[in-house]
Amino acid sequence: MDKIAEQMEGYSGADITNVCRDASLMAMRRRIEGLTPERYETCQKDEMHMPTTMEDFETALTKVSKSVSAADLEKYENG
């Protein structure tokens, strides 16, 4: 968690939410990969749970950019 937090330095709360959502969806996509639509539809909810990995977070971080600039952060910190 500390490594992920360091990599998200300067990300807004909404940015962090997007990273987490994308990372968790990657885990689910791995689970359903290769399933037929019929098999996917019959999966139980507990079958769909897949742990989110560090790799999922690192991949999500490459897709989600910071929406807050350094100038915005400085403005906020200086009041």
TrEMBL record:
Keyword Flavoprotein: no
Domain AAA ATPase AAA+ lid: start-end pairs: 2-37
Record keywords: ATP-binding, Nucleotide-binding
GO biological process: microtubule severing
This protein's GO CC annotations: microtubule cytoskeleton
GO MF assignments: ATP binding; ATP hydrolysis activity
Domain Spastin/Vps4 C-terminal: start-end pairs: 48-77
Family of the protein in this entry: Belongs to the AAA ATPase family.
UniProt cross-references to PANTHER family, sorted A to Z: AAA DOMAIN-CONTAINING, KATANIN P60 ATPASE-CONTAINING SUBUNIT A1
UniProt name for this protein: Katanin p60 ATPase-containing subunit A1-like
Lineage: Eukaryota, Metazoa, Chordata, Craniata, Vertebrata
Gene behind the chain: LOC113062701
